[in-house]
Design goal:
This protein starts with a strand and ends with a helix. It contains nine helices and five strands; from the N terminus they run βββαββαααααααα. The chain has 224 residues and is of the alpha+beta class. Helix content is 49%, strand content 17%. Strands 1-2-3-5-4 form a five-stranded mixed beta barrel. Strand 2 and strand 3 form a beta hairpin. 36% of the residues are buried. The chain has three domains: 60 residues, OB fold (Dihydrolipoamide Acetyltransferase, E2P) (Beta Barrel); 66 residues, 5' to 3' exonuclease, C-terminal subdomain (DNA polymerase, domain 1), CATH 1.10.150.20; 54 residues, Orthogonal Bundle (Helicase, Ruva Protein, domain 3), CATH 1.10.8. About 9% of the residues have low confidence. Keywords: ATP-binding, Cytoplasm, DNA damage, DNA recombination, DNA repair, DNA-binding, Helicase, Hydrolase, Nucleotide-binding. Its main location: cytoplasm. One of its GO terms (molecular function) is four-way junction DNA binding.
Amino acid sequence: MIGKISGRLDYRMGDHVLIEASGVGYIVHCSERTLAALPVEGSHVALYTEMVVREDLMQLYGFLTLAEKEWHRLLTSVQGVGAKAALAILGTLGPEGTSRAIALGDIAAVKAAQGIGPKIAARVVNELQDKAPAIMALGASGARRAMAAAPVVATPVADAPVIDTVIDEGPASDGLAQADALSALVNLGYAHGEAASAVAQASGEGGDAGALIKAALKLLAPKG
């Protein structure tokens, strides 16, 4: 199984690229969003990959992040959603948008992808809603690692408002899980204060970032 390819971007077409790695050219199918994010031809690129094998076909699909790759895997586990349909959803919404739509039960957003009808969109949301928090945590963790690796540039910052809600400090792993959960909830569109409050309440039950997100979403759900 080929899980990642790093090499020179030889060319790109409407739905795929060719990456040359160690003298071998790999055709890798990508979403429109991923294709648009890749550098110019001749540049070095790295893509996480998933190999789809059928009786008459063997294709590689490429993703910029592990969260995008995992969403593609989960989407194709839904009956009626093939590899290209999963790419269409990710190309329309992106991994964060897919997390947001499925976590919040937004069937209309999923249906906006080309070739996805209302029945398939509803099936995607219903079957994957419980799995969304884990992928949201994966995406938040990846973003945190990227920020930690980036060089720090000191710039003057204006006085910022103080948020009263503070997430309790605990073991390092607990703190990272809470930070990832908070980041994921803010990306969903919740205000920082209410998201922090929900994570703080949910953290009393323990668990990893995915469990915290799931518990916090229940706390944030409209009461009716």
